[in-house]
Specification:
Elements: E1 7-17, E2 26-30, E3 35-39, H1 47-62, E4 70-75, H2 86-93, E5 97-103, E6 109-110, H3 120-133, E7 145-148, E8 151-154, H4 170-173, H5 192-199, H6 205-212, H7 229-245, H8 247-250
Parallel strand pairs: 1-4
Antiparallel strand pairs: 1-2, 2-3, 3-5, 4-5, 6-7, 7-8
Length: about 250
């Protein structure tokens, strides 16, 4: 089933920084009257974090996993002029154009594996997806999960698809086993094989191409070794398809 394009909004006000993450995301209001947690293209981790967020977040949503809505946020660097924090000023100045926003979930709580119960099937599906995309950042120290209206929400997928920081590693990454020993849901993810059997057939070329099409050209252009944004998209699709085909090797 085709994936809908990401909505585009225009940022109207910078509300506050979120200093829990290394990339200094910020809460911003937009012209649709929505409030978003925005990750900026000018942050030190670069635009590939935004690409990973869109690809993995979009794939997760397509597979029925709970991920807050993602939107493209147009940021005018002028918004930084009124900010007293020089670090925020510099970040906004460096992030003119399209950035990535995630729907702000008011009242959401950080996931606590001791206090919060997760269904074994959902936990297994989350762990399987993380294994597919090589998520190195869903540990008990930093779950990147929220509890909102008694439901689990998956956030922060910038630390996935790490091979794209060095495309020469893509081939070996396709069959790399996933170490789930530190995963925050490993103890309750007791239906991993069933989760893989259910999800793997859904991760096919048309779906992946549809998800990849939602990544803006501006975040993919000028990638060393590629002649166009579409060629980069095809490389992502090819990598994930190769990984799905090799799931008996890496599946936890």
């Amino acid at each position: 089933m085709p994936v809908d394009p990401l909505r585009s909004v225009v940022a109207t006000r910078y509300v506050m920084p979120l200093r829990e993450g290394g990339s200094l995301p910020g809460v911003m209001e937009a012209d649709d009257l929505g409030t978003y947690v925005v990750k900026f293209r000018g942050a030190g981790q670069g635009r590939k974090v935004l690409v990973a967020e869109v690809l993995v977040g979009g794939l997760a949503r397509a597979l029925g996993l709970p991920v807050p809505e993602l939107v493209l946020v147009e940021v005018d660097p002028v918004l930084g002029r009124a900010e007293p924090d020089e670090e925020v000023q510099d970040l906004l100045r460096a992030s003119g154009g399209l950035n990535l926003g995630m729907d702000f979930l008011p009242g959401a709580l950080g996931f606590d594996p001791v206090a919060h119960v997760v269904d074994a099937d959902l936990a297994s599906r989350v762990l399987w997806l993380d294994a597919l995309v090589g998520n190195v950042d869903r540990s008990w120290r930093n779950p990147n999960l929220l509890r909102w209206h008694r439901s689990l929400q998956l956030i922060d997928h910038g630390a996935t698809l790490v091979f794209h920081h060095d495309w020469s590693r893509a081939a070996s990454a396709a069959t790399k086993p996933y170490d789930a020993s530190d995963h925050v849901l490993k103890d309750v993810a007791t239906s991993r094989a069933a989760a893989g059997d259910a999800l793997a057939p859904l991760v096919e070329g048309d779906l992946l191409s549809s998800v990849a099409a939602t990544v803006p050209d501006a975040w993919l252009e000028d990638e060393p070794g590629f002649s166009s944004a579409d060629e980069v998209r095809e490389a992502y699709v090819d990598h994930v398809l190769r990984r799905v085909a090799a799931r008996e090797v890496w599946q936890p």
